[in-house]
TrEMBL record, chain A:
Major place of residence: membrane
Transmembrane segment boundaries: 26-47, 183-205, 217-239, 259-281, 301-325, 357-375, 406-434, 454-482, 494-517, 529-555, 604-624, 631-651
Family that this chain belongs to: Belongs to the binding-protein-dependent transport system permease family.
CDD domains reported for this sequence: TM_PBP2 (cd06261)
Residues covered by the ABC transmembrane type-1 domain: 179-376, 457-652
Gene3D superfamilies noted in UniProt: MetI-like
Subcellular location as annotated: Cell membrane
Keyword field: Membrane, Transmembrane, Transmembrane helix, Transport
Any GO BP annotation: transmembrane transport
Organism: Rhodovulum euryhalinum
Membrane topology, as annotated: Multi-pass membrane protein
Protein name (record): Iron(III) transport system permease protein
Any Gene Ontology CC annotation: plasma membrane
From TrEMBL, chain B:
Keywords, ordered alphabetically: ATP-binding, Cell inner membrane, Cell membrane, Membrane, Nucleotide-binding, Translocase, Transport
Organism of derivation: Rhodovulum euryhalinum
Residue ranges of domain ABC transporter in the record: 20-250
Protein name (database record): Iron(III) transport system ATP-binding protein
InterPro entries: AAA+_ATPase, ABC_SmlMolc_Importer, ABC_transporter-like_ATP-bd, ABC_transporter-like_CS, AminoethylPonate_ABC_PhnT2, Mo/tungstate-bd_C_term_dom, NA-bd_OB-fold, P-loop_NTPase
One GO BP annotation of this record: quaternary ammonium group transport
NCBIfam families reported for this sequence: PhnT2 (TIGR03265)
Amino acid sequence: MTDAATLPPGRTTRLKLDRDGVIKRGLMLVIAAYLFAALALPLYAMLSKSFVTYSFDLTRYEFQVSDETGTIWSDPVSAADLNARLDLFDPDDLRTSTNGRLAVTGFFPEFSFRSPVKYRLRGTVADAPYLVGLDLQNSTEWREFDGNTFRRVNLRPVATAGLQNYRAYFTNPTLLSSIGNSVFIATVSTVLTVTAAFGFAYALNRSCMQFKGAFRLIAMMPILVPSLLPGIALIYLFGNQGLLKSLLMGQSIYGPLGIVIGSIFFTFPHALIIISTALSISDQRQYEAAESLRASKWRTFWTVTIPSARYGLISAAFVTFTLVITDFGLPKVIGGQYNVLAIDIYKQVIGQQNFEMGAVVSVVLLIPAVIAFAVDRIVQKKQVSLLSARSVPYQPRPNRRFDMAMLGWCSLVALFIVGIIGICQFAALVKFWPYDLSFSLRNYEFDRMDGGGWAAYFNSLRMAALTAVVGTVIVFTGAYVVEKIDGFRLGRAGFQFLAMLPMAIPGMVLGLAYIFFFNDPENPLNFVYGTMAILVISTVTHFYTVGHLTALTALKQIDAEFEPVASSLRAPFWRLFARVTVPVCLPSILDISIYLFVNAMTTVSAVVFLYSTHTALASVAVLNMDDAGDVAPAAAMGMMIFYTNAAARMLHAAASRGLLRRTQAWRLR
Amino acid sequence: MTALDAEGLRAATGIAEPYLRIENVWKAFGDFVALRDVSLDIERGEFICFLGPSGCGKTTLLRAVAGLDPQSRGTIRQGGRDISDMPASQRDYGIVFQSYALFPNLTIAKNIAFGLENTRRPRAEISARVDELLDLVGLPEQADKYPAQLSGGQQQRIALARAIAINPGLLLLDEPLSALDAKVRVHLRHEIKELQRKLGVTTIMVTHDQEEALSMADRIAVMNQGVIEQVGTPTEIYRHPATLFVADFIGETNRIETTHTGGAVRVGHAVLQTETHGLRDGQAVVMVVRPEDVLPHAVGYEAEMKPNQLPVDIADMEFLGSYWRAHLNNPEFANTPLVANFSINAVRRFGLASGTRMTVEIPPERLLVFPREGVA
């Protein structure tokens, strides 16, 4: 503040805190603490982890060896000298991960545990860790070992910070090829999805085609299933024993082809929503002007339709690109040997336990996601300003040939979507594809397979319900804090940034960040690791942004003067919150909760790192059963998720309508 | 002397402090100074208007009084206690906004009862009070409707009922009529004034509409660029504006730049006497005359012009219903036409029309003279 320059000397008046003020600040602290613990700190932990390398530092250790009698000792010799003299390990052997161990017997080629020769070991600096059995030692005092004990002595690595991990990553051709692969499939999928979705959206908004309602419903179906489900369907159709394998003419479905087809399926609704919104706000008057100027239909399309929808198209393209490049489930199921970034993270972490390299790949994966996010935000802002209150909505006129063509296109897309889900359903119900196609419910007996059984399904249900309830409370309160609490402008801006951030963080990255943060024994929050709580927290955080924006939009529509009026009436703010703010925003609150529920049921990426044996989830079970070769049960579990989400959606629609009728009577004049 | 002593002294001498005392209040938003050393006393039961163009600081001052945006410097005392740093919830006022700010999901009755429900009064008492208030604002049948089902004027009356429900010591009205149609506005103006008189509640209204301020307020504080230019009754403000800004802002004016000599100004050959004091000889001044103070004296030029008489030609006449507006030209100051409002009677009596040559008179007590700023 520059008060001093413009005001007379003195102290600037600040209002005393009343009870409301205390509670509001408390709320703000709680939400800020949540976002910090669940987002900022884990990401920071991951980022710093990517710069940490572990290696055995041989200069830190010294040995002494006795003669056969165990009384006369050699001069102390450092492990580094020993290594240089005997040429035992090259620098690559000395690079390792957190869990690395180096047996000291390796320094003594003549070592035999039966010999009476004794050994001594000490650190030359304070930090020189080594293990005796499982006991961690770290001492500059000599310790003496007989041969039998000495073979259980292992050196432990020390951490150094630097760019070595990145250097290693960018000199590894296998890892590096994943970048190209990821960008390739994301680009191809984006072009195809956006084209398909544009045609579909065009039909919905600009034609007089029949069955629009049904098409809308079908187009939204992919949201209800995990992204890896289309992979399973494609295996049934085009896999080694696929019905239509011959159609591929020798091409394999395992690899980029399968990933791209599956990606079109699961990103289609997301692209459609955005493009459809963009097309629905076009102005009839522009078309009338074009017609009166005798512009051809083709020319009108390129000079009026495309420019007015361009922000929607750009936004849809970036959203699709991000979804594909960060997706993990689909390449896992149908990628075969084709490596992509998300798979690399999984392989580094789960397969090789190389967490640091996993962190490096995560950082690489963050780059396209962050760019896409930034571009999307800029474009979204521009899109809003296109709307004017005086625009006249476009009214399509019937045109038989055009409408039939549109109907044809939409039917094709609908067939694709229904077909994928139908195949999964069919495969889940038959005894043994493709040899015995008689029906049975055996594939639904999940308790007979690995992967978590029915317990996994009920865990998912519990997790989704908790996410919906807890998440909605946190998200709505957070948005309220940003929008309706005055003061703390800087704090609220930071808050808003944190709330937007999850949109740019791929699930795999978030999951890995959680391992680093919550699995650290020194973290007081360590106790949530391996519990249901961490699954709920990660899912709420992963899907935070969309809910936040929904709540913010609803809150912005509420008169800013309600708070002053309530405080002048000496009513505490929580009474206003409970009796006015929440009821008025109820439709949006329901939308947020169903969004969180459906996504919690289908998500794989973040939770795949975080579930434990007693918190296995249905979506992860699909992945694991597929991995174990139980593809039909995997399809069955995927369908369970589909039924559940469809039912939840219907319940939500009914509840919304009921609530609207009961509590929102004021909306009707 | 401690505060308690001052209090005691006041009680002993019988000099009561005004109900609301605003002292040396400043407000800055970054580098922008919105209020500049504003002081104002408001008596109990008074209806006062903060009037001024947008950006003059009137709403800022109201929000400081309400504790919504505290002042940067200065003190505000209400009913003898210092409320300068009290949060809104601990002050004693009711507020009505331009947007009504009625809770859309609550019925009219529940809206009005919103403030009463904190007072832990029995249900029956609250509902009796709500009925009483609905009667008071003339909407007894509307208790179970929702705000969206009422007209704008009705909604604003409900907002008023809600604000006075808790018997506040101070009623703050922030442009309460600006969102309403012209007819409703005039009607509600009158009703609010009546209600205020009946309740005797000290009231501050912020408005940019001078007609509203003149017709409703006991006193008006005219504000401009963060300072109060003048405080006074509507007639004082209108008849005796203290500054050129006030004269210009309230009502219509003719402005003619001239110089002052010996209690008079010259326009062409005409000498116009004024009752404005404190001007130097030869000082550059602005002469201000309201259109209704240009009085028709006679048709044709007088042979011998008396002081405060001017020869003019009617260039053009507009009929405005209750009066005529005439644009008068004087050959001697052709570039500043004079606007005059002539009553229908006068036009008929003198037979005035476009092109008429006539003599008009401006009485000395109606001729306002202000020093020209920036000119010695």
